[in-house]
Amino acid sequence: MNAYKSLVANMGVPAIIIYGDPHNYCKHGFKNGIDYQVSNMDGEYPFGLLVLELQPGFFGNKKWKIKQSDAFNLDQDEANKFDKKFQKKEKKYQYSQELFKMTIRAYLKNNS
After folding, report:
1. Is 70 exceeded by the pLDDT of residue 55?
2. By CB atoms within 10 Å of each CB, which of 38, 43, 45, 49 scores lowest?
């Protein structure tokens, strides 16, 4: 994680914003979007919307909205064709998948 943070910081990127499990990322300095006034496009603060400010003070006192990349709107048939290029791997359910769904559907309330 530290190597990735350094790489991104050296590219001049002011922050890293992800959806993830706070238990995994907060130990690396990530905070919830609400702490930087970074919301989703609906103005909500998902529990799993995490921000790592690489340039201190970058977010300031402004309100920000994050738009998810169109790269996540993939064609499932094309993805399946792509996956066939690799050695077959067993697909199985992981409890962490359910936890992740909860973290992106649970919202924090902004009391300010």
Report:
1. yes
2. 43
Judged against a pLDDT cut of 70, whether residue 90 lies above it is answered with yes
* Neighbour-count burial of 38, counting CB atoms closer than 10 A to its CB (0-12 exposed, 13-18 middle, 19+ buried): buried
Rounded alpha-carbon distances, angstroms, from residue 52 to 2, 6, 75: 12, 12, 30
d(CA 35, CA 45): 10
Note the pLDDT of residue 112.
67
- Name the domain count of the chain: 1
- Domain of residue 87, residue span: 2-108
DSSP state of 37: T
Tokens of 57: 């003070």
